[in-house]
């Protein structure tokens, strides 16, 4: 059987992946877009094509802005493949994935990874109790199934998503018991030096101020500079305790949503062993990329939040730029055309990213919420505490990957997604060395569960077969 080969494989159908696929297709490339979800949009525009008028009203204009992008994808020549879970990617740009229970492999002349972001873990005492979720999970339920909590809700942590979700819940008629903000009310005054540069992205700043104003008008209790957060309860979470501005507080709620920003989902790039660096402003690992998004492995690109957190608009522009470079490498456009076509996108990218350094500084997660006390569980899958990890270091453990041998830390179903950053920082603190010298887990396939029967029956992906979704659209 001849090898299934396509010009470009894109992994992830969020803003970056869709934009890259559309640009590449428009330049004459044959593109296959693999999406783990059932419909395009990624996390930011999740389920936008299926949302009704009420959902769009609740989720807001920024969410609805993704509809045009999704519709353009579905009307294009891009081979969009939903429900495709990628479980292995090789240096030769072979992508192994599961779809409808069947295992396939497809090779690309070029590969773009646009796997987006995931929420940063927030390991505080009690975060493993039933009734505690992440803010991102709450928003996914809202987007996917219009599911909203029945009882009062507490949102705790830091970052713009907390404000956005709080406003969306208000529009949906949900009572918010409190917004417990670990960032300070006057934090902006500490970063006035960044303000001039950030003003180029004034639209993003204005959106944030608008969300805060909406919460204030609604009378939501907003606690600032919260410290020493802990959750207590019997069989489930019942109360959030914290200190704020010199006073101790406790707030009861049936649902507590935690959030302290998002970080790049680097599982695929880590498995490829491309170069990764520690990004101190965003406190996370990022794949090295040149100005076009190409990694240390030739022909493999990263765009969007999967490379570094920038938001939906930055992701869309980075996707376009990466696709132009890919088109030039595959000789669909020449060098002069490349730079001419890229120039307006580069100008736009500068404007879109202007506010990011200020946002990163304003919502920098507290050290105690990233590097917890000994008693707090860090690895939820294997129930490994921060104290246990510190004891491994005292016994000679040098990095996260070794914690697997010492106590199975990071060996559970999430494959380190929920604990990896915390483990890096705990070890770095205990060893008194920079995070960059500690490293990260050594990620290995399968990246997603696959049975032996599926593995044994893997076949080359048949590019002549029209997917179920494509058939329904024609």
Description of the structure:
The chain is α/β, with parallel strands linked by helices. The chain folds into 3 domains: 185 residues, FAD/NAD(P)-binding domain (3-Layer(bba) Sandwich); 140 residues, 3-Layer(bba) Sandwich (FAD/NAD(P)-binding domain); 66 residues, Arc Repressor Mutant, subunit A (Orthogonal Bundle), CATH 1.10.10. Helices cover 35% and strands 22% of the residues. The protein contains 18 helices and 22 strands. The strands form 6 sheets. Strands 1, 2, 3, 4, 5, 6, 19 and 22 form an 8-stranded mixed sheet that branches. Helix 1 packs parallel to helix 10, helix 10 runs antiparallel to helix 11 and helix 14 crosses helix 16. The longest helix is centred in the C-terminal third of the chain and has 18 residues. The mean pLDDT is 93.
Produce the secondary structure layout.
Layout: E1 5-11, H1 15-26, E2 31-34, H2 53-59, H3 61-64, H4 66-74, E3 79-81, E4 84-89, E5 94-99, E6 102-113, E7 117-119, E8 132-134, H5 135-145, E9 153-158, H6 160-171, E10 176-181, H7 195-198, H8 202-217, E11 222-223, E12 226-232, E13 239-244, E14 247-252, E15 255-260, E16 262-264, H9 267-271, E17 276-279, E18 284-287, E19 300-302, H10 312-329, H11 335-352, H12 356-362, H13 367-370, E20 377-379, E21 384-385, H14 386-394, H15 400-407, H16 420-431, H17 452-456, E22 459-460, H18 468-473
Parallel strand pairs: 1-2, 1-6, 2-3, 6-19, 6-22, 8-15, 9-10, 9-15, 10-11
Antiparallel strand pairs: 4-5, 5-6, 7-16, 12-13, 13-14, 17-18, 20-21
């Amino acid at each position: 059987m001849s090898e299934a080969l396509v010009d470009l494989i894109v992994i992830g159908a969020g803003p970056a992946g869709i934009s890259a696929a559309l640009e590449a297709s428009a330049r004459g490339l044959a593109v296959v877009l693999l999406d783990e979800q059932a419909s395009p949009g990624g996390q930011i525009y999740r389920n936008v094509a299926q949302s009704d008028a009420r959902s769009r009203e609740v989720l807001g204009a920024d969410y609805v802005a993704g509809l045009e992008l999704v519709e353009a994808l579905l009307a294009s020549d891009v081979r969009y493949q939903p429900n495709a879970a990628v479980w292995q990617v090789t240096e030769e740009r072979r992508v192994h994935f599961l779809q409808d229970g069947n295992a396939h492999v497809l090779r690309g002349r070029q590969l773009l990874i646009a796997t987006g972001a995931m929420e940063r873990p927030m390991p505080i005492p009690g975060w493993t109790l039933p009734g505690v979720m992440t803010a991102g999970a709450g928003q996914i339920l809202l987007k996917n199934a219009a599911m909203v909590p029945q009882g009062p809700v507490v949102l705790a942590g830091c970052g713009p998503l907390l404000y956005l979700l709080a406003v969306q819940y208000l529009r949906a008629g949900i009572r918010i018991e409190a917004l417990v903000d670990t960032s300070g009310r006057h934090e902006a005054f500490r970063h006035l030096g960044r303000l001039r540069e950030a003003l180029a992205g004034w639209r993003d700043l204005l959106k944030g101020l608008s969300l805060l104003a909406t919460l204030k008008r609604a009378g939501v209790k907003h606690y600032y500079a919260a410290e020493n957060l802990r959750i207590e309860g019997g069989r489930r979470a019942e109360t959030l305790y914290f200190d704020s501005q010199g006073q101790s507080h406790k707030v009861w709620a049936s649902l507590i949503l935690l959030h302290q920003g998002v970080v790049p989902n680097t599982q695929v790039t880590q498995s490829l062993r491309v170069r990764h660096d520690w990004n101190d402003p965003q406190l996370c690992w990022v794949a090295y990329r040149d100005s076009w998004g190409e990694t240390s492995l030739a022909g493999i690109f990263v765009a969007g939040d999967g490379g570094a957190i920038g938001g939906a608009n930055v992701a869309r522009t980075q996707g376009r730029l990466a696709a132009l470079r890919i088109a030039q490498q595959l000789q669909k456009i020449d060098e002069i055309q490349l730079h001419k076509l890229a120039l307006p996108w580069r100008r736009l990218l500068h404007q879109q990213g202007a506010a990011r350094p200020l946002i990163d500084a304003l919502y920098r997660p507290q050290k105690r919420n990233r590097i917890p006390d000994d008693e707090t569980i860090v690895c939820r899958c294997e129930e490994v505490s921060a104290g246990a990890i510190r004891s491994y270091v005292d016994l000679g453990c040098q990095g996260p990957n070794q914690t697997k041998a010492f106590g199975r830390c990071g060996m559970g179903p999430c494959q380190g997604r929920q604990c990896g950053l915390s483990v890096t920082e705990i070890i770095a603190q205990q060893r008194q060395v920079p995070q960059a010298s500690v490293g990260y887990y050594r990620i290995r396939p399968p990246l997603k569960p696959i049975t032996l029967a599926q593995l044994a029956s893997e076949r080359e992906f048949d590019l002549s077969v029209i997917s179920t979704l494509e058939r329904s659209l024609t």
